[in-house]
């Protein structure tokens, strides 16, 4: 039986037997759950390394990023 906790951090289960990467601008630090468990970057943070398992970081002073931002 397929288990969703088989997907590594940064990836989610499609409900089948596949793991897909969380989209850019989101992350998932734990090995569990479905696509809704990918956490979008909050306003004022950015996905600076585009790695799907690391959390978003606060924007530098005098800058702003909308929710789900990367770069």
How is this structure best described in words?
With 71 residues, the protein is mostly beta strands. 0% of the residues lie in helices and 20% in strands. It is elongated, with a radius of gyration of 13 Å. A hairpin with a 5-residue loop joins strand 1 and strand 2 (19-21). The strands form three sheets. The chain has a two-stranded antiparallel sheet.
Write a concise synopsis of the structure shown.
By secondary structure, the chain is an all-beta fold.
Question: Descriptors for this entry?
Answer:
single chain, 20% strand, 71 residues, two-stranded antiparallel ribbon
Helix fraction by DSSP (H/I, runs of at least 4):
under 10%
Helix and strand sequence: EEEEEE
Main pleated-sheet profile: 2 strands, antiparallel
Count of helical stretches: 0
Distance between the termini: 38 Å
Strand content: 15-25%
Q: Which structural class do you get from the secondary structure elements? A: mainly beta
What's the layout of helices and strands?
Elements: E1 11-13, E2 19-21, E3 26-27, E4 39-40, E5 45-46, E6 57-58
Antiparallel strand pairs: 1-2, 3-4, 5-6
């Amino acid at each position: 039986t397929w288990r969703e906790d088989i997907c590594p951090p940064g990836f989610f289960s499609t409900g089948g037997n596949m793991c897909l990467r969380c989209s850019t601008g989101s992350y998932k630090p734990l090995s569990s759950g479905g696509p809704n468990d990918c956490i979008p970057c909050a306003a004022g943070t950015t996905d600076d390394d585009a790695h799907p398992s690391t959390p978003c970081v606060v924007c530098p002073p005098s800058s702003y990023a909308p929710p789900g931002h990367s770069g």
